[in-house]
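Pipeline run #58 for the internal structure catalog. This entry was flagged by the ingest filter as a single-chain record with no existing model, so it goes straight to prediction. Upstream metadata was stripped on purpose; only the residue string is passed forward. Reviewer on rotation: M.T. Logging verbosity set to normal.
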Amino acid sequence: MSGQKCKNKIEMWTSKLGKQYRKDEVDFNAAKAELDRIRNLPENKRCADCGTQGTVWSSVNLGVFVCMRCGSFHRALGTHISVPKGCTGTYLWSPDEVKRMKDLGNKKADNLYGSKRAMQALPNPDATRDQWLEFFRDKYERRRWATEVVETAEAKNAPASPQQTVATGDLLGLSNVDSQQPLGQDFSLILVSEQSEGWS
């Protein structure tokens, strides 16, 4: 009888964004293939933080692809700011995580966080770890280089912290995300107009 119970046990898996899946119902190979496709788009091949070629880490809640070095700083920030995840190896990726990376990515994140302006303020190569972490907090927590506030539908539906609400709609599927799961701070309503950036 106990053997029968084990056979019928449903194994659940929780994504970094807090959504639960039945493990036997997720095609992790297809999700990984789609992630690799997104990561290999020209705008996602360079680190969103320092511009280095090669992105092997990501921040799932912030929607950015980063290099190994910058990934180590994301891991040190705390999940209330950044929820890092490796893009290579044996990491399992779920549909909601892949969707977040597809909906944002480095090009749109540049407008949300001011990545290009932030790169002009990169710490010196010999800067201390604390100085680097302060740079990352300035960029993602304090939004020091973020662009002007423009209330577009996309910005209104960007991921918010658990203490915030999304202005309208559910573009990123946040209604399915556990409200207690950290999603990064103050992530709504900061986006330049798509027309000014020539987005299609």
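catalog note: Strands lie at 12-14, 20-22, 57-59, 64-66, 84-86.
catalog note: The mean pLDDT is 77.
status: ready for reviewer M.T.
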